[in-house]
Amino acid sequence: MSEATVSRAPFQSQQANESAVSDQESPLRHHQYVRPAAAAGRPRSHLTVADVCDELGISKSTFYDWRAAHKAPCCIRLPNGSLRVRRADLERWLSECEEPA
């Protein structure tokens, strides 16, 4: 048991030192990512379902209900299975939803 404790101690201290150095070198951690469009202040051209729901003020379940009823904006399915909505498609869909006064 003492051998395992001895062999782990240097690794743990080395790992702590590496994380301290990497935090000092970069303000972002390795798992954080700033989208280029968001960083430049431009609206993104492809929105997540969460982005669309936030913009419309609806829940994700409502969005998926609309999608099942073919009443949601056109979506793109990515290879990982997640959905994206083109901003242009969302704007077009919103204009089609407008009712004359």
TrEMBL record:
Residues 47-97 form the Helix-turn-helix domain. InterPro entries: DNA-bd_dom_put_sf, HTH_17. Residues 1-44 are annotated as: Disordered. The keyword DNA-binding applies. One of its GO terms (molecular function) is DNA binding. Pfam families: HTH_17. The keyword DNA-binding applies. Keywords: DNA-binding. Residues 10-25 have a biased composition (Polar residues). It comes from the Bacteria. This is DNA-binding protein. It comes from Nocardioides iriomotensis.
